[in-house]
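Give me the fold.
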Amino acid sequence: MKIRRGLAVLLALIGLASPALCEGTFSMMGLEADGSGRDWSQNLFFVRMAERTGVSFTFRQYGEEKAYQMAKEEAFADGNLPDVLFKANLTPQEEMDYLASGQLVDLAPYLSTYAPNLSAILVARPEWARVITQPNGAITSLPIFNGADRQCCIWINAVWMDALGLAMPVTIEEYTDVLRAFRDGDPNGNGKRDEIPLSIVGSWEARFLLHAWGLTPNDYNLYVDDGGAVRFAPFDPAYRSFVEWLNMALTESLIDKDAFRQMQGGRTATLSDKEAPLAIGGMVSFAPYTLLDLAQATNYAALTPLEYNGERVYRQFLNGVGRGTFAITSACEDIPAVLTWADYLYTEEGGRLAFAGLEGEDYTISENGAWEWNGDADYGRLSEIAKNHIIAGDAQTPGLEPAAFIRNMEIEADNHVRRQTDMIRGYLVEAFPAIWPTNAAREARIAEIQGALGVCVDTAIANFAMGLVELNDENWQAFQEELLALGAEEFVLLWQEVYDER
């Protein structure tokens, strides 16, 4: 907590830091693939940045990920490199390979002098510094930082809770009783038994319930215990209890009956037919409005992580650091200039410019400190701002997301969701630390085994939950033996090597 308070003070001090005025025009290459329709050559963000820094760019912009990847590989292969990669979408392997070939610049020696705002953040948050620093100490790309990043939560219908006089559950047993009350108590008040107590899609969403049994594995079903040992969650006895609960919940209609039979699009269509705001008791999502109308978001609260043996833990899905967003290549003849340009994005002022545009022109701050887009009721105006005035809003824009500013929008639904998510941050557990690929043969073997194990685990969860395979000792043991036959023990040993070398 002291580190976080220290960072807040630090950012208050550096937030007004202005970039040193440099001069020059450089070439920039990158990916804008989120469907925004942005044309970097026409976007006011780059014009405004040039006014502040003296640095401008010509662009090689790509709108499709596959085309960009091919162009990126070709540029590094034939040496026709841009000066800068922006929204670079660099993988850790690419960062290491292109550093080794001398085509990406190690920025670590330059940061304290030419990127003081970023450097101060890295000093205040050493855990963030570790994520972007290669094993040899090099830093070849700059990140996006968000100390209040969204997390995938379990949302519960607080309006239904109030209607039925229910308290927030503390244990999985109490949560089960809440779902039963949603099923039986007609909380939507329409006189029908049409409520869906919990809506989930597939094994991935279901696994966010594992915290109720003390488990917080990652997408590889791995976690590191308190002693530093890598564990494979399906081998933990508590994992069977989790699967048994899913089977019970489906049998008792506490979970959407199609939970393991449909894709996300099918669920969305179904919920639209059922007047979703009146029919859902909860969901697993980054925000309720991924399924419901924006106006319904404030009806839902993030479920406080449930206790297991007196403790509450919850899987951290995002660690606040997005790697590989900005890099400088060996073609650049003025590293200080472009690094100074990038450093402005790690200030409060730069973050607002990227995420919201220019105060007065694109947004207005009211007397109470809340802000709103100019022309909030004019969809055309908002589209214009998003397309031609700002550059951020994705996971690939370098800089510091101005979290406190964004949380103070006039759009209360979004503020509500972000603040609810903040309530679970104290329970977040990192399943496995960010790592760098240091052994190609090992990485290939891990990927090969994971391909088999992932399908096996997801299929078993679905089959046991739906009762397609009876959940008894014999069949559970057969599942465990199948995991062993697919290489689960080797998988754990390989990841243990990775963890020990990190």
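The two ends are 25 Å apart (CA to CA).
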